[in-house]
Amino acid sequence: MEVFIVSLLNGLVYGMLLFMLASGLTLILSMMGVLNFAHASAYMLGAYFAYTISLYVGFWPALIIAPILCGFVGAAIEMWGLRRVHRNGHIAELLFTFGLALIIEKGVQMGWGLLPVPYRVPALLDFPLFSIYGTNFPAYRAFMLLISGMMFGAIWLGLTRTRIGLVIQAALTHPEMVGALGHNVPRIFTLVFAAGTALAGLAGVIGGNYQVTEPAMAFTMGPIVFVVVVFGGLGSLTGCFIASILMGLIQTFAVVFDVSLADLLAKIGFIVTAKTPLAEVLTVTLPRIGALLPFLMMVLILVFRPRGLMGTRDT
Amino acid sequence: MSFVRRNWLWLLAAVILLAVPFLFYDWTKGRHSGFALTLLSEIGVMAIFALSFNMLMGQAGLLSFGHAVLFGLGSYCTAHAINAVKAGTFWMPIELVPLVGGLGGLVFGYLLGWLATKQRATAFAMITMGLGELVSAAALMFMAFFGGEGGISIDRVMGTSLFGISYATPWQVYCLVLIWAFIAASLMKLQTETPLGRIANATRDNFERAQFVGYDPRIVRLMQFTLSGFFAGIAGGLYVMIYEIVTFDTLGAAKSANALLAAYIGGAGGFFGPILGTIVVVLLQSGVSLISSAWLLYVGVLFIVMVMFAPVGLIGLIGMHTPIRRIGRLGELVVPYLRAFPAALSVMLGFVLMVELASNITIGAAQGKKFAIAGMLINTGSPVIWGIGLLGLIGGGFWLRIEARRFRRRWDALIEDAKRQGVVV
Predict the structure, then answer these.
(1) H helices of B360-382, where?
(2) Each residue of A106-147: pLDDT tens digit?
(3) What is the pLDDT of residues B22-62, one digit of tens each?
(4) B388 — contact with chain A (CB < 8 Å)?
(5) Dihedral through CA A108, CA A110, CA A116, CA A122, nearest 10?
(6) Distance (Å, rounded) from C-alpha A122 to C-alpha A29?
(7) CA separation for the pair A250, A127 (Å, rounded)
(8) How far does Cα B195 stand from its chain's mean position?
(9) A85 in contact with B at a CB cutoff of 8 Å?
(10) Which of chain B's residues have a Cβ under 8 Å away from the Cβ of A85?
């Protein structure tokens, strides 16, 4: 039970972090059709910006400034890069962001060095909030939940209750019609791209000190975020939210349960020894394949249900 | 004679490739440069790999992010086959060993392709990415086949050659790689002219119409994917022969990205584009990485520049000159090119200087390296040197812009002239 509750909380924290990244990517992908490989790079940039800013003025201003900087980077990428590449088709756009991700990773290595930077949790939040069954739950994780929860609320209200949100929703499916009605669709694209990048930056600010701020963080996070977006389905924030939480829980719980297929077989009276065929496959434990489960799920859902959990159209 | 006339390009390439190692030949000691030979062999292997990748991207319009899986699995199959021959399990001539890799690639290409080709476009790209991550992670789990982190080592001196060659020296291996590269490349070239190759083009351009004609795009994709796996596997088999070891990073995303970069930089539209791209990428990777830690950045920037300004790739850029050559006025472009060259050089040098300065301050200094140009030690903190870099980049940028406009006018005039003379542009 204690393991269950602690894992549940940790899974929620991780899932919400994933959602902050994935929500922006879902909007960008459904609206512009761009599979943005540089999205996780914005997450990394957010963490590094926040680290540098917090060296001078502290964590709290960084929480505001770093995402805004990321937003500007995103707007610049969209206006001067993607829009130009757009003429050459979707594959060119995708490859453009792919190259951008490579460059940003190298740029970060050159700007901040190869080693992880000591980006720490602010002292104000560096205490255990409560403890269950002897395990401390850090206040910072609760803070992360709070921030990401607020952000979820803000996105939801913004998209469903404001005028610009309604225009964005319309542009998701019928960009030509929205343009014909007199809205500046390219500017909406820029806005969404910038907002998505800023959200990823915010995720980086609060996730960078929860995990490790290092040049490889974009490439470890990137594929998982794709999985979440594809799994949740295009054009659906709800699906994206469910997929994020699911993925967070799966990854956390997989680490906890140290079982393998062989253990299950042993329960029904079949003992796996080194001589059994496929013994190596059967004895792999769940924590070891935990990191693989998301990819397995992505491949399966793309093959059998390409529109994802709650998507409105095929990927 | 007509064979020579029809295939002069291939024959010329073969002669050049056999001659190049002798440029680096150490005449005093009477032996080849190992570095040059390994580099050339690497180019040969990666060229096959990039060509096989382009069978998907260029021909069938399928962007794969996990193509290295087939390359790597081919390598592992070859490594196990070589070890089995050494142990005396069965006999096999060493010259045919890369074929084992090819068959491995074929089988795995069919299995993985069966999943991946159910979808096309973005979904296909995502499935291949997922499969790539799955297989490369599985490589660290299953010791028996993949050998864990240490990988599988082999000894390529098997003593089962058909021609009595030992393959102990890099030169012999290079010749083997060359022969296989030519076989694979010409087979792939022939494949583009088969009905399958043509229909693959059709499904790329408009899969619905291809469906109407009566072909199942899924089957076309699957066959193309499987064949591409075969050639990727051959490349993998040769890779094992060169390095005598295969580790899990042959399956990884970085290797897949290499093929993508090579194919795109070279040009996915033409058959020979990926070969050109491979030469550029491998030279940057192996040559520049010796003197600079930022080689990946240069490849990335080159890639982005190509995507933004020349999506047709290097081969496409060359091909754009054909109409002007037809009307015999190629010479008129020499002066505009020469005028633009110093501007482009200035931009490039300025950029490289700033990148190197930056990477020396953060990464190089941590490794205790000093920054020197032509033996002159340079203080990386001095504003003067940064100023020079910035001036080269920005000043050169404006200069290049002016020259590019002038070039553009000349170019448009020539193309206009070509059109008037009835040359197809």
Answers:
(1) 365-366
(2) 888 888 888 888 888 887 777 777 777 777 778 888 888 898
(3) 777 777 777 777 788 888 899 999 999 999 999 998 888 88
(4) no
(5) -60
(6) 34
(7) 27
(8) 26
(9) yes
(10) 307-308
Interface of A with B in 198-237 (CB under 8 A): 219, 223, 226-227, 230
Shortest distance, CA A230 to any CA of chain B (angstroms): 8
Distance (Å, rounded) from C-alpha A59 to C-alpha A50? 7
Give pTM, 2 decimals.
0.88
Query: What chain B residue is nearest to A91 in terms of C-alpha separation?
Result: B63
Amino acid at A32: M
DSSP 8-state assignment for residue B312: T
Pairwise CA distance, residues A247 & A236, whole Å: 16
Q: How far apart are CA B382 and CA B350, in angstroms?
A: 15
Check if the beta carbon of residue B347 is closer than 8 Å to that of residue B400: yes
Measured in angstroms, the CA of B124 and the nearest CA of chain A are apart by 8
Inter-chain touch B141–A296, beta carbons under 8 Å = no
* Confidence grade of residue B359 (pLDDT, cut at 50, 70, 90): confident
CATH architecture of B2-317: Orthogonal Bundle (1.10)
Query: Does residue B351 sit at the A interface (CB-CB below 8 Å)?
Result: no
Domain definitions of chain B by residue range: 2-317, 322-420
Q: What is the pLDDT of residues B112-165, one digit of tens each?
A: 999 899 888 888 888 898 899 889 888 888 877 888 788 888 888 877 777 877
User: A90 and B118 in contact by Cβ < 8 A?
Assistant: no
Q: Which ipTM score applies to this complex?
A: 0.84
